[in-house]
């Protein structure tokens, strides 16, 4: 089961470079559900760094999406592919996910502490290559100007996610745990009171009818 607490290591190591980017992120695709988890897909036409995307995801009450099964990865990648014109740049870089490598050649890990070995990582051939300066984030990348479910690594900010050699990263995917989703559907106390009062009145009416 996924941990609710975002891995503090990502916040400690990945400094919020590019926090003053000109364009704000906006929701491109809202409320896609898979296996109880909700996903929202954000775009940023100015380009966004991994650390800024991670900060925005946390601020929204979720975290950058974590892929724990091939089925989950294919589902998320499928939604991204249907919006490839917005979420992929001309070099084939897709949106950020919740994986990161803190230093060059360091193993990748997920922001929520989930196992990175839960299924065979679908790295694109030659990835990860730590080509830009670490730390590096994980994104969808399929080897050219095409969309798909493979992964690549890209620098966090300068020389990477914003202003990098192969363009800006134009979006990210946010995931919300089932317990977060459930909180939004819990009835308000006043609603419960009104419901209880209504049921009591209905029961009294039925008893009166039977006596008559």
Concise overview:
This protein has 212 residues and is of the alpha+beta class. The protein contains six helices and ten strands.
Describe the structure.
With 212 residues, this protein is an alpha+beta fold. The chain has 2 domains: 8-176, Mannose-Binding Protein A, Chain A (Roll); 187-212. It is 29% helix and 24% strand. It contains 6 helices and 10 strands, in the order αββαβααβββββββαα. The protein has helices spanning 8-13, 50-59, 70-81, 84-87, 178-183, 189-211; strands at 26-34, 37-43, 63-64, 93-101, 109-110, 136-141, 151-155, 158-160, 162-163, 171-176. The strands form 3 sheets. It has a 4-stranded antiparallel sheet with strand order 1-2-10-3, sandwiched between helices. A 4-stranded antiparallel sheet has the order 5-4-6-7, with helices on one face. The protein is globular and about 40 Å long. 36% of the residues are buried.
Number of strands: 10
Q: How would the global form be characterised?
A: globular
- What's the CATH class label of the largest domain? Alpha Beta
Write down the Rg.
22 Å
Largest β sheet strand count, sense and barrel closure: 4 strands, antiparallel
Q: How many independent structural domains?
A: 2
CATH fold-level label of the largest domain: Mannose-Binding Protein A, Chain A
Side-by-side strand order of the widest sheet: 1-2-10-3
Which percent range describes the beta-strand content?
Answer: 15-25%
| Mean pLDDT, all residues | 79
Structural class: alpha+beta
Order of helical and strand elements: HEEHEHHEEEEEEEHH
CATH level-four homologous superfamily name of the largest domain: Mannose-Binding Protein A, subunit A
Distance between the termini: 56 Å
Range of helix content: 25-40%
Number of helices: 6
CATH architecture of the largest domain: Roll
Q: What are the segments in which pLDDT stays under 50 over at least 5 consecutive residues?
A: 1-22, 184-212
